[in-house]
Amino acid sequence: MAASIEDGVRAGALAPGDTLPPVRALAAELGLSAATIASAYRSLRLRGVASGAGRRGTQVTARPPLVAERPSLPTAPGLRDVAEGNPDPRLLPAVKRIAARAPATLYGAPTVLPELLRLAVRDFERDGIAAAHVAVMGGAMDGIERVLQAHLRPGDTVAVEDPGYTAVLDLVGALGLGARPVAVDDSGPVRGALHDALRGGAQAFILTPRAQNPTGAALDAARARELRRVLDAHPDALVIEDDHAGPVAGAPARTVCGGRRRRWAVVRSVSKSLGPDLRVALLAGDEATVARVRGRQAVGAGWVSHILQGRVAGLWSDPSCEALLRTAADAYAERREGLLGALRARGIAAHGRSGLNVWIPVREESASIAFLAARGWAVRAGERYRTKSAPAIRITIATLTAREAARLAADVAESQRGFGRTSAA
User: Fold this and answer.
1) Is 90 exposed, middle or buried (0-12, 13-18, 19+ CB in 10 A)?
2) What is the residue-averaged pLDDT of the chain?
3) Using an 8 Å Cβ cutoff, are 212 and 161 in contact?
């Protein structure tokens, strides 16, 4: 029964949000026991394909995890692609010229390369993040998934940013967890929204302290203090920080995981700074969380390749790479401000304090995207990033030139002219 429903979702016969038949009604129709149907629905919930919707019954989740690899949305020929969210390849270091600083690794060797550990601890502690316990993961999402699995079970609820990163939203659903949206402004998650989510039963909170995807939000000192005060009132809540852009974010590192937080993790990926194919992320956290994560890793993948770890350690130790990261951060900041300034000059409110993206509230996403495509631009619809927040589009500025920014801003402004001016989200 569960497999049949899953096949229907995969084939498109059942769409995200569709309500499955009531247990007793379906049991009577198929001549099965209600216990059999309930067991099938429970299996679907555990796999993140369905979720309980209270009096509305059981529904197909918004993002059922049935595609092994979500394909990139195709860009029509001839369009300038400012949708993908990739870093500028010209601002990534030449990995091949850095020798991997790791000997041949055999079974039984330490899972974390000592030199990489030393450098990671230095960087964490420099930013006020305790680093007595550190693990190396195969990318940011690998770390976030393992931390969630270390503490939560299907049916638990996670507070997530709204708008928020699509992969986080997908992962929460795939693990059979519920999501409670937390509104985001330019300074990050809004204090009152987080308070409501935790009071409403959320057992965990995932946030991006800088270069938030898609809005570019970044915590300032005041907002970090506000969020810590809210979290202090919920000492058992798990807190996960996804610091995916790190040194190229264009904003200082701030954390809400200080003090006596019982369950926490800060995950730092190198994908935006050193390159997406270096599947390495450093995870610092409390002793129990890191022990659970490393223990689960040990019985699965075992460890992240020491060759990759050595490449990262070599790059982090190279003065020319450090200079390139500063150049990249400055270039992304200039390109962000170039587009934001051009939009402001045309009366368009937009967001992008840090990172590689600019978030532009619009009246109608599909109409805006179609208009911009006709003008030669491929931009990303905001729909998959949003839960309750208003319509918007996301534009990646990583490779955007000043001349392109002026033309793109003019086209965005014209796309909204029929709706009136947009306002800040």
Assistant:
1) exposed
2) 90
3) yes
Nearest partner of 86 among 340, 331, 396, judged by Cα: 396
> Which alpha helices (DSSP H) does 306-386 contain, by range?
306-316, 319-344, 365-374
Distance CA 306, CA 404 (A): 41
Closest of 176, 250, 186 to residue 222, by C-alpha: 186
Q: State how far the alpha carbon of 332 is from the alpha carbons of 243, 313, 340, in Å.
A: 17, 24, 12
Give dist(CA 206, CA 267) in Å, integer: 11
pLDDT digits (tens, 9 = 90+) for 14-68: 888 889 898 888 888 888 888 888 888 888 877 778 877 667 788 887 777 765 4
- In angstroms, what CA-CA distances link 134 with 246, 254, 265, 295? 17, 18, 9, 13
Helix axes 319-344, 306-316, angle to 10 degrees: 80
Whole-number Å distance between alpha carbons of 322 and 319:
5
Q: pTM to 2 decimals?
A: 0.85
Residues in the chain: 425
* 336, two tokens: 């962000």
pLDDT, position 49: 83
Give pLDDT tens digits for 66-98.
654 445 555 667 899 999 999 999 999 986 656
- Give pLDDT tens digits for 391-402: 999 999 999 999
Q: How far is CA 32 from CA 218, 336, 379, in A?
A: 53, 59, 49
Q: Are 66 and 9 in contact (CB under 8 A)?
A: yes
Q: Where are the alpha helices (DSSP H) in 60-113?
A: none
Q: pLDDT tens digits, residue range 276-286?
A: 999 999 999 99
**Count of Cβ atoms closer than 10 Å to residue 158 Cβ:** 25
Give the CA distances from residue 368 to residues 25, 121, 213, 246, 300, in Å, rounded to whole numbers and listed in that order. 43, 45, 20, 32, 45
Report pLDDT for 423. 47
